[in-house]
Write a structure and sequence with these properties.
Elements: H1 41-48, H2 55-71, E1 74-75, H3 76-80, H4 82-86, H5 91-105, E2 108-116, E3 123-131, H6 134-153
Helix pairs in contact: 2-5
């Protein structure tokens, strides 16, 4: 199991493999009703970090995304105080596991803003995390592509 390049080595030992690069639609038909027009964002986070497999990652991702939704962006200073607004020690899990996966999936993006401190003459870059539009675009493209596949498959 650990020899596979996509296996998340830090995942819990379960019958399902949690990978760094995937989402999984569970078989819970009560929670994930196919007839619903839109799932709420928290349900979608459950696809990235299934609560049964990664309860802490699920919780921290929701805390982070709830704050991002309210604020519109989160800078590195606010991010570094995550333990205060996350109410426990989750910063390293957030930075090392959750944010990289959300970024790979196209849910968030990083922007770097140049700054110069006028008093000290120092300069640098400040990281700002914002919601990205690429995940929505990817899902739209997948849905349209699959609809074309189904249409072609059902033609007589």
């Amino acid at each position: 199991m650990s020899d596979h390049p996509f296996v998340d080595a830090t995942a819990r030992k379960t019958s399902t493999i949690v990978t760094k690069n995937s989402i999984a639609v569970p078989e819970d038909r009560q929670k994930y009703k196919l007839s619903e027009r839109a799932w709420n964002w928290e349900k979608i986070v459950d696809l990235f970090f299934p609560e049964e497999q990664s309860p802490k990652r699920n919780k921290y991702a929701k805390i982070f995304l709830r704050e991002l939704k309210e604020e519109g962006e989160i800078d590195s200073e606010k991010l570094n105080s995550f333990d205060e607004w996350g109410h426990e020690k989750g910063l390293s899990n957030l930075k090392n596991n959750i944010l990289p996966k959300l970024r790979r999936l196209g849910v968030i993006k990083y922007e770097y803003l140049e700054y110069r401190d006028a008093r000290e003459g120092s300069q640098g870059r400040r990281k700002v995390i914002k919601p990205a539009r690429s995940f929505t675009s990817m899902l739209d493209s997948m849905a349209n592509g699959w609809a074309a596949f189904e249409s072609a498959a059902y033609q007589d």
